[in-house]
Amino acid sequence: MSAPLEAQALGKRFRRGWAMRDCSLTLPEGAIVGLAGPNGAGKSTLLELAVGLLEPSEGEIRVLGHDPRAEPSVVARIGYVAQGAPLYRSFTVGETVEFARSTNPGWDTAVARGVLDQLSEKRRVSSLSAGDRARLALALALGKRPELLLLDEPFGRLDPLAAREFLQMLMHGVAETKATVVIASHVIADIERVADHIVLVSDGRVRLDGDVEELLASHRLLTGARRPLGQIAGVAEIVRQRHSGRQMTLLARLDGPVVDPSWSVDEIGLEELLLAYMAPERLPEPQAREKGRLRWHA
Question: Quick one: CA dihedral 27, 157, 95, 72, positive or negative?
């Protein structure tokens, strides 16, 4: 079976320069993917390429085994909520749902109604709160019973309560449709709670891609006396290093256990790991060793 989304050497250039360059990835089927990265990293560009709104400048992208520009029929199998949940503001909720039903042959009214519970069909979209607009946009996307659901900064305008309710509706809808989900956000806390796979983009390139548990298991913070660095048994790659006085701190990707007693080895949380890859020059200050995970201050 084809991957929900795969890209090979994908690039997109605008007049101002490259928004994405040399992007290669393959998303696992059935995963909830957190597409992380700072503002302007290329997250929205990747999603717009995936639904055929943009044409690649180089490389290729395939969604559910098809090129979305050459075979636009595949878009019917994709649910997409763009940043800000754009909707026809002059429509009522009922008119919006009816328009979606009439334009999507695979429409599932029950799934859409499950998201729109207690939202009056007579209300104008222009009168809805940010949370209710997000709810309506999600209902339209899930009502298609998509195989791939793409959400671009879905929590951006929501208060904490509305964001929690949106997340609950999302997870219920995903359980119903069995869709692969991509949640793009520059706020790591938004995706940390639900993502089981992470793709981190920065400066238009993929910096990190993998299963969350595997990424956390393969990275450690090493703290020890400042010294010339040679090969460290168990360390496949030193991602970044920082010196502070007589100490040094390393963010290391491991390929085995670190048994050298001169190094203090600490776990790192997902948020701290992603921040380190996004802003790798800002390593944590060495501190007295504590039980539990050492946080990455960025």
Answer: negative
Rounded distance between C-alpha atoms, residue 233 and residue 56, angstroms:
42
String of DSSP letters for 64-120: TTB-TTT-GGGGGGEEEE-TT----TTSBHHHHHHHHHHH-TT--HHHHHHHSTT--
Place of tokens 């949380």: 269
User: Coil, helix or strand for 207?
Assistant: strand
Pairing of the two strands 17-26 and 5-14: antiparallel
Give residue for tokens 């039980």: 291
- What is the full DSSP assignment across 122-189? TSBGGGS-HHHHHHHHHHHHHHT--SEEEEESTTTT--HHHHHHHHHHHHHHHHHH--EEEEEES-HH
Q: What is the pLDDT along the chain (298 residues), one digit of tens a residue?
A: 689 999 999 999 998 899 999 999 999 999 999 999 998 899 999 999 999 999 999 999 999 999 999 999 999 999 999 998 889 999 999 999 999 999 998 899 999 988 988 889 999 999 999 999 999 999 999 999 999 999 999 988 888 898 999 999 999 999 999 999 999 998 888 888 899 999 999 888 999 999 999 999 999 999 999 988 888 999 999 988 888 889 999 999 999 999 899 999 999 999 989 988 886 544 444 445 444 555 554 4
For residue 200, the cross-strand partners are: 36, 208
Query: What is the CA 281 to chain-centroid distance, rounded?
Result: 23
Strands 219-225 and 247-254: antiparallel
Angle made by CA atoms 37, 40, 45, in degrees to the nearest 5: 90
